[in-house]
Amino acid sequence: MAKQYVHMSVDTNTASMVGKRKDSNPILLKIQVGNASHDGVKFYQGNNLVWLSDYVPPQYISVE
Predict the structure, then answer these.
(1) Where exactly are the structural domains of the chain?
(2) CB under 8 Å to 57, separation ≥6 — which residues?
(3) Which terminus of the chain has a smaller tally of CB atoms within 10 A, N or C?
(4) How far apart are CA 58 and CA 64, in angstroms?
(5) Dist. CA 46–CA 7, nearest whole Å
(6) Residue 14: enclosing H or E segment and its boundaries?
(7) What does pTM read for this prediction?
(8) Neighbour-count burial for 23-61, b at 16+ CB within 10 Å, e otherwise
(9) How far apart are alpha carbons 61 and 36 in whole angstroms?
(10) pLDDT 10s digit of each residue in the chain, 64 long?
């Protein structure tokens, strides 16, 4: 997908619903936002349910 930002949902229900637009059984990824932010990764609020980032290094990502 050609997205300008990494899109992140605030909860697993929203993430699952969005993921199911492309796949009936999406894999959810969990972002360690506190650690990433502390280490300088920038996050931007897109709306009430979505946060954005330019890039999330893999050490802050795990499979939910």
Answers:
(1) 6-63
(2) 36, 41
(3) N
(4) 14
(5) 9
(6) helix 12-19
(7) 0.83
(8) eeeeeeeebeeeebeeeebebeeeeeebbbbeebeeebe
(9) 10
(10) 566 999 999 999 999 999 999 999 999 999 999 999 999 999 999 999 999 999 999 999 999 8
